[in-house]
């Protein structure tokens, strides 16, 4: 039963990204990023991954905000992607891309499933968002000095 809520939260995460999360968008953290993760109080014994659109976007963004996720929750994101395909396929509409599917479903799903996630505050003392608000541990994680990583 809990998995339904986690998949629903993952659908919301995907709506916020606006793109299909595939294996190539899930990259294990670097050693330096794991060190930052430990300093921030996360359990670094489990493998953590970052969700990215691609290297080019990250290299050209001076203030990177990564989203990180523990390995144990990656299958939930993949189930959410499959759920988006399944729901949109029921429409019998031919979609040209994943974002078209999201646009279609935005008109069909309850607003809570497509609502924006809380942004990471610029003035936060911590570089991470309080996890209490999120059922799924997809965490906005801002790198202040991307050149060091």
Q: Strand sequence of the main sheet, in spatial order?
A: 1-2-3-4
Strand content: 5-15%
Which regions have little confidence, pLDDT < 50, spanning 5+ residues?
A: 120-136, 141-149
Q: Which structural class is indicated by helix and strand composition?
A: alpha+beta
What key attributes describe this structure?
single chain; 149 residues; alpha+beta
In terms of topology, how is this protein built?
Blueprint: H1 2-17, E1 26-28, H2 31-39, E2 48-51, H3 55-59, E3 64-70, H4 74-89, H5 98-106, H6 111-114, E4 139-143
Antiparallel strand pairs: 1-2, 2-3, 3-4
Helix pairs in contact: 1-4, 4-5
Question: Could you explain the architecture of this structure?
Answer:
This protein has 149 residues and is α+β, with helices and mostly antiparallel strands. It has six helices and four strands. Strands 1-2-3-4 form a four-stranded antiparallel beta sheet, with no helix packed on it.
Short description:
The chain has helices at 2-17, 31-39, 55-59, 74-89, 98-106, 111-114; strands at residues 26-28, 48-51, 64-70, 139-143.
């Amino acid at each position: 039963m809990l998995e339904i809520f986690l998949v629903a939260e993952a659908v919301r995460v995907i709506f916020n990204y606006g793109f299909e999360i595939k294996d190539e968008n899930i990259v294990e953290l670097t050693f330096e990023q794991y060190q930052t993760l430990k300093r921030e109080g996360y359990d670094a014994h489990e493998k953590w991954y970052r969700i990215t659109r691609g290297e080019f976007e990250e290299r050209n963004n001076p203030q990177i905000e990564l989203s990180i996720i523990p390995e144990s929750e990656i299958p939930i994101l993949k189930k959410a992607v499959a759920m988006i395909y399944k729901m949109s396929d029921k429409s019998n509409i031919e979609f040209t891309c994943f974002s078209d599917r999201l646009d279609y479903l935005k008109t069909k799903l309850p607003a809570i499933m497509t609502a924006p996630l809380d942004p990471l505050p610029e003035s936060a003392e911590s570089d991470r968002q309080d996890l209490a608000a999120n059922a799924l541990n997809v965490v906005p994680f801002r790198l202040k000095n991307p050149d060091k990583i």
